[in-house]
Amino acid sequence: MRCSVMLVLAAAACGWALSLASAATSRDDDHRSRTHDDQLFVQSARMLRDGRKTFRFDTFGDEAFWGGTIRLHEAIAGAKLGGVGPGVSPKAALGIGLKVDLEKLPRELVRSLPRGDVNLDDPATPLALLRLNAVVGVTGFFDGGRLTSIGIQCALCHSTVDNAFASGIGRRLDGWANRDLT
């Protein structure tokens, strides 16, 4: 009997030890899983941030075409600002479906627009918006104060704004088609 009691106690002790080992392994697996999940979350966030930056701001070198070949920047600037022709006014730009990212505009500019303090017929205004990266899907390249080229991003066609401020001016809506481009 003594031997069987010892055997039962030994079996119980082994069972208890195995259960502790199993719990420790489970905690290690949980920790590894959590660490792996955390790494995946961080990597996913990084990929989204990098993808958004590419979508919004990468021209993929097309400024060689828009600026170098077609010289679109000269038509946008107009003769008074180193280009050709009358230039493009903010009214004309909004009229062809370009969008302005409200969150890129300085507060003072946002306050002065409703008061009529901003000349919406002046080609200098779109250049100022390009300097602020406020024109959705379009990048202006400047040398000093002079517009030297234009680049186009995915966002030109695949983003719009919510018109929170005015038609064509609002918060960006990436991934929404710009159905107003003409």
Structural write-up:
- This protein is of the alpha+beta class and 182 residues long.
- 53% of the residues lie in helices and 13% in strands.
- The chain contains seven helices and six strands.
- The protein has helices spanning 2-57, 63-69, 72-77, 90-95, 107-115, 124-131, 155-158, and strands spanning 100-101, 138-143, 146-152, 159-161, 169-170, 172-174.
- Strands 1-5 form a two-stranded parallel ribbon. Strands 2-3 form a two-stranded antiparallel ribbon. A two-stranded antiparallel sheet has the order 4-6.
- β2 and β3 (146-152) form a beta hairpin.
- The longest helix has 56 residues, at 2-57.
- The protein is globular.
- The model is unreliable at 5-9 (pLDDT under 50).
Write a compact overview of the structure shown.
It contains seven helices and six strands, in the order H-H-H-H-E-H-H-E-E-H-E-E-E. About 3% of the residues have low confidence.
What oligomeric arrangement do these chains adopt? single chain
In the sheet with the most strands, the strands line up as 1-5
Rg to the nearest angstrom? 30 Å
- The percent of residues in helical segments reads 40-55%
Low-confidence residue ranges = 5-9
Largest sheet: 2 strands, parallel
What is the terminal separation in angstroms? Answer: 97 Å
Series of secondary-structure elements, N-terminal to C-terminal: HHHHEHHEEHEEE
Estimate the strand proportion: 5-15%
List keywords for this structure.
13% strand, 182 residues, alpha+beta, single chain, two-stranded parallel ribbon, 53% helix, globular, two-stranded antiparallel sheet
